[in-house]
Amino acid sequence: MLKLYFGNSITIISTLLLGANIAYMLWGYLGRQTIQKWGMIILLFILLHGAFWYFANVRDLYSNSIIFATDGSVEMGLFSVSSIQSIVFWAASVIVWLLGIVSIFKPEYRQHIFYIIAIVSLVQIAFIEGSRIWLYCSAPAHFDYL
Question: E strand or H helix at 36, and its extent?
């Protein structure tokens, strides 16, 4: 199981960014009384969240899944392009980005938007990381590339 999160340098970076994402969400919630600049908090979270998913997609060989779906010249990555994991990832990402854009024009709702973004992100992370763990437990050969 440690191989999933500490198997190589990319998994280690994505694990550290996963922890940073969760810590940032907790900090945003626990520090809600003292935070003054919710717009900056949202922007930094979207950047941190994007960095995590970049490394998570590299870790899970998602680019291979895209190439496999277009021409089949490489082996598919961990999740296919049409999988529920991919759909949840993209839907949640669109929601996060749209809410980030809305927060630019609606400063009075920024604190609430941060909470919604954090909840959507937690669901996204829990679903995809849970899927990875379930796949590892049911078919560990999929992780031989680590």
Answer: none
Choose among 34, 35, 36, 86: nearest CA to 62. Answer: 86
The Cα angle at residue 139 between residues 134 and 142, in degrees rounded to 5: 105
How far is the C-alpha of 98 from the C-alpha of 41, rounded, in Å? Answer: 16
Q: How far apart are CA 24 and CA 130, in angstroms?
A: 20
Please name the helix (run of DSSP H) or strand (run of DSSP E) that holds residue 126, with its range, or none. helix 110-138
Phi, psi dihedrals of residue 26, rounded to the nearest 5°: -65, -45
DSSP sequence for 11-26 = HHHHHHHHHHHHHHHH
pLDDT tens digits, 48-92: 999 999 999 999 999 999 999 999 999 999 999 999 999 999 999
pTM of the entire structure?
A: 0.91
